[in-house]
Amino acid sequence: MTHLVHGFKTKKDFIKAVKTQPDQVELIDPSIFAPRSGSVKELLETKPEEMLFVTNERRSWFANIKLSQSGIKVG
Questions:
Q1: CA–CA gap between residue 14 and residue 60 (Å, rounded)
Q2: Among 32, 41, 55, 57, which residue has the least CB neighbours within 10 Å?
Q3: pLDDT in single tens digits along all 75 residues of the chain
Q4: How far is CA 4 from the centre of its chain?
């Protein structure tokens, strides 16, 4: 499921926030079946093998986040 994020006008701003303060970036899962919402850090620690897919409220940009041995990767 694709998570929603609010408050970031550009993907560049989002990437910077995720890399510097992953515990402050809140992701919202709009699913009605077993939603997983929370901070980037919390969601990656819960299931480190899982990749997170993210978009903004207007769906003008998309990103994926994963945890690697060298840290958080955002693409």
A1: 13
A2: 32
A3: 799 999 998 999 999 999 999 999 999 999 999 888 999 999 999 998 999 999 998 899 999 999 998 889 999
A4: 8
Terminal Cα-to-Cα distance of the chain (whole angstroms)? 17
SS3 75: coil
Taking the model in full, what pTM does it have? 0.88
* DSSP labels, 4-73: EE-S-SSHHHHHHHHHH-TTT-EEB---SSS---EEHHHHHHHSTTSPEEEEETT-S-EEEEEEETTEEE
